[in-house]
Backbone:
């Protein structure tokens, strides 16, 4: 009976300690978000401007910025739609050029720069048959052989994908491979086997290489770390390392030498 009394008393004590605490969440500071690319592929260069929204904002539409003045190396980029600003038709990036972005919006100036580095030479791409292992079925991956004679230290960003034999469009995987040429012998070929790929006869493998400068490399490296799935020892969430300068701004401006390769699986 005494034990029951103690139990009831504890319940009343704990209940009386309940208190509602109001946490004041700071209001979101709207930031300009810049996504820009200058590439060696004709008519693929753009600058996209949007605005950030708060974490608790239920807005479903992206806030596009439509009234900015945008130039790259003095060449105007005109607004088209969905936040995109583009140059006149026929525009193509030139290897070795340092591209300077200038954005003027609501009286504020934002700037960035990116050097368009050359991509290294891909000599051969071959399909490689693999037995089933782990979660991967048997099938073909691809390996490439390349010669990187660029001065060290240069950076490369690789995306890969495929087109199924019955597909009508390409699929590019979200996985990003980032690497540099530090310590590589320029007289020896680089050999790399694309991971996590199993294709079947009739499919087509797609490799998309981009040269990047150091600031762009570090941005995508941080993005990879953020999308690794998290865990008790993962990096705490933080803004990605933007290379755009100005007040209340996020984003990336990058110049790429782009090389695309398609290999049919026999």
Residues:
């Amino acid at each position: 009976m005494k034990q029951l009394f103690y139990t009831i008393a504890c319940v009343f004590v704990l209940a009386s300690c309940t208190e509602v605490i109001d946490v004041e969440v700071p209001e979101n500071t709207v930031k300009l978000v810049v996504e820009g690319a200058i590439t060696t592929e004709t008519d693929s260069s753009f600058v996209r401007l949007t605005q950030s929204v708060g974490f608790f904002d239920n807005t479903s539409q992206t806030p596009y910025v439509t009234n900015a003045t945008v130039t790259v190396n003095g060449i105007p980029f005109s607004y088209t739609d969905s936040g995109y600003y583009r140059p006149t038709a026929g525009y193509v990036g030139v290897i070795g050029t340092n591209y300077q972005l200038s954005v003027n919006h609501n009286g504020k100036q934002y700037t960035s720069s990116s050097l368009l580095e050359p991509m290294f030479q891909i000599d051969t791409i071959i399909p490689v048959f693999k037995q089933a292992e782990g979660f991967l079925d048997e099938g073909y991956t691809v390996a490439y052989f390349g010669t990187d004679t660029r001065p060290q230290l240069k950076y490369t960003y690789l995306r890969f994908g495929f087109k199924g034999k019955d597909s009508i469009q390409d699929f590019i995987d979200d996985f990003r491979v980032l690497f540099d040429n530090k310590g590589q012998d320029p007289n020896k070929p680089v050999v790399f086997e694309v991971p996590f790929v199993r294709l079947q006869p009739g499919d087509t493998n797609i490799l998309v290489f981009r040269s990047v400068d150091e600031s762009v490399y570090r941005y995508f490296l941080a993005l990879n770390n953020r999308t690794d799935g998290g865990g008790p020892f993962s990096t705490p969430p933080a803004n990605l390392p933007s290379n755009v300068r100005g007040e209340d701004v996020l984003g990336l401006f990058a110049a790429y030498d782009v090389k695309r390769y398609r290999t049919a699986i026999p």
Observations:
- The two ends are 82 Å apart (CA to CA).
- Confidence is low (pLDDT under 50) at residues 4-8.
- The longest strand covers residues 121-130.
- Helices lie at 2-16, 214-226.
